[in-house]
Design brief:
- The structure is a homodimer of 387-residue chains.
- The first copy, chain A, has 387 residues and is an alpha/beta fold.
- Chain A is 41% helix and 19% strand.
- The first copy, chain A, contains 15 helices and 16 strands.
- In chain A, the strands form four sheets. In chain A, strands 4-14-13-12-11-10-6-5 form an eight-stranded parallel beta sheet. The first copy, chain A, has a three-stranded antiparallel beta sheet with strand order 1-2-3.
- Chain A is globular, with a radius of gyration of 20 Å.
- Chain A starts with 9 loop residues before the first strand and ends in an 11-residue tail after the last helix.
- Chains A and B meet through α13 and α14 of A and α13 and α14 of B.
């Protein structure tokens, strides 16, 4: 097991509460408070938000998508323009995924070999290729602070044999990704990190083997991949319980693509430190708003004359400046300000949730907090039941 | 000629330069520097902008649309929620049109009688009715600071007889609008104003008769309506030259629905004080940006690698924080931030234009400034020639 000397990337654990932890990921571009939620900036923009507004919600770090950015505007172009941070005006840390998940979910005519994946762009049908080496090259060109290994993301449910074959391929790709990352000449000076991704579907034995294989290679952090692909919440939680104990306790753990607020609470209880998800931004564009009492659908006619704020405890512009009646009106009218305000609110809500989780862990009262959190939510209004 | 005693609404002329003037419209909700450009907030939002951002561009006053707001969310509802200013979080002055123009341009199955206009909502086909009395009632319910008389807007070109018949109807409606406005019990306390609208197409004799008829009634300001409906620019300018000399010199003059930047410059040279137009906002949503050298289409591939700011002299977020290459990318990707940034830029550009006009008038150099302005613009890139 190698242990790369990253002088500028460091995970500082501040407190533990059961399996949960709170801490700080120190990077040259700024600190990331954990548990952390990373807003998704797919195409070099967190949709419907200016970057300073994303920061105002409390976000310490963004996620960028290798797959989208390689297709448009192109990694070499972004590098020529000074890197992704400058391009999208976000000076703080950026984590980039490797493109593995999007290749599987978005592109057409995929052909997977040991070397990598040939596929067609979902934008214009152009023939493209991703491999561990190319995925890390793209992330270097983007200037990513936390780079993810290139992996295969199989669909669930799948057989044990199918998932095992896929996982072992992902582990060979993880090794090649680490080697390619280690050849980036400025990685140490810039304090960049490379994270491995545990695969193995919902099979505990495969998850354990994957976690061990990644630690043989050695990474600055470990992600749990291949979840949030439609499996029930209890399957996700069971998989975390079978995986997290086999990961290093002194390095960050990242659950990719998760999730709903109660998914996040459950995963933090099981030892996860980092999250990303399009739900707050996508829901905001669909007229849905998260609150600590559950989610609201602003399209609902019951809000047409509601002079109350969306969430009286929230400090975002949607809640400070407008009524539910106004939000209902602009959602129904299809106005862009509806997407802007509800996205801002939802990202603020997610950051408030993370802050409450961090405080509860720091004060060793996470279990009680999580129980009260679940009680306060009204299941009928839960986002999962919205039309 | 009546001269309503409006203690709180007052037009202060600061300087004249030829036919052009600069001044301040004082209202209880704040001052409006003239010549003024009013961003259009059709459905209780300036599209793709938060209200504080609209103010940051330099706007002193917004325009709201009676037609749109009466259909959705409804004038009585907005009144119940505290008025349009509170509803949309804009504490400064709001001018509302009377719905006359939109009834003609947007609704179906119009039936015009002496009493008013029956029409079908363009949203849901609902049967609706607007009259001078109802239009002023709606504007009162909205809490509008400057209320426009209800008028008929005939399509151009039209015969002299057709325009004359329409104009004389509009003058009878103007009288009824003024009477209805005068019955608003709190109009004086709130410093509200009512503006007449000159009609008469491109016929100088009808414009003069209309201007005189309105002054017989007496208003706090006078608008020129029925233009910006597709006529050539020189026809618009000739109509202004035939109209403005017949309007009071000590009250504001408002050219409705205009226009392109060089339309505005030409109209200011001919004595107009106020403007509104959807062009900066609509163009922003279509990837077009105004500069003092002409308009740019950010969709153009020549911007894909352009690291320069959109306009180095502009202080808006699009110009301060991003490159043309980024704006090209987000326009091509259909990202909401493209509409947000380019709308912000275009509204900023329009306000910068108005500020330059005000300064040039104050310093008695408008003619020279306008000549230099026209020279600097590159006709090939003019917005009117954009695809």
């Amino acid at each position: 097991m190698t242990s790369p000397a990253m002088t500028n990337f460091r995970f500082e654990l501040l407190a533990r509460d059961g399996a949960a932890r709170t801490g700080i990921i120190h990077t040259p571009r700024g600190d990331v408070r954990t548990p952390a939620f990373m807003p998704v900036g797919t195409a070099a923009t967190v949709k419907a938000m200016l970057p300073q507004s994303v920061r105002e919600t409390g976000a310490d770090i963004l996620l960028g998508n290798t797959y989208h950015l390689m297709l448009r505007p192109g990694a070499e172009r972004i590098a020529h323009l000074g890197g992704l941070h400058k391009f999208m005006d976000w000076a703080r840390p950026i984590l980039t995924d490797s493109g593995g998940f999007q290749v599987m979910s978005l592109s057409a005519l995929r052909k997977i070999t040991e070397e990598g994946v040939k596929f067609q762009s979902h934008i214009d049908g152009h023939a493209e290729f991703l491999s561990p080496e190319r995925a890390m090259e793209i992330q270097r060109l983007l200037g990513s602070d936390i780079q993810m290994v290139f992996d295969e993301c199989p669909a669930l449910p799948a057989t044990h044999a199918g998932i095992e074959k896929s996982m072992t391929l992902s582990m060979r790709w993880a090794k090649r990704s680490r080697t390619a990352f280690d050849q980036q000449t400025d990685r140490e000076r810039l304090g960049r990190a490379c994270f491995g991704i545990v695969q193995g579907g919902t099979f505990a034995d495969l998850r354990r083997r994957s976690a061990e294989a990644l630690q043989e290679i050695g990474f600055e952090g470990y992600a749990v991949g291949g979840l949030a692909v439609g499996e029930p919440q209890n399957a996700m939680f069971e998989t975390l319980e079978a995986t997290v104990p086999h990961l290093p306790s002194d390095q960050p753990r990242y659950l990719m693509g998760v999730g709903k607020p109660d998914d996040i609470v459950g995963a933090v209880l099981r030892g996860i430190d980092m999250f990303d998800c399009v739900l707050p931004t996508r829901s905001g564009r669909n007229g849905q708003a998260f609150t600590f009492e559950g989610a609201l659908n602003l399209k609902n006619a019951r809000f047409a004359d509601d002079a109350a704020p969306l969430d009286a405890d929230c400090g975002c512009p949607a809640c400070r400046q407008f009524s539910r009646a106004y939000l209902h009106h602009v959602v129904k009218s299809g106005e862009i300000i509806a997407a802007m305000l509800l996205t801002w609110h939802n990202l603020t809500h997610y950051q408030r949730l993370m802050e409450k989780l961090r405080q509860a862990i720091a004060e060793s009262r996470l279990t009680q907090w999580a129980a009260a959190y679940r009680t306060a939510r009204q299941p009928a209004d839960n986002i999962s039941t919205l039309p």
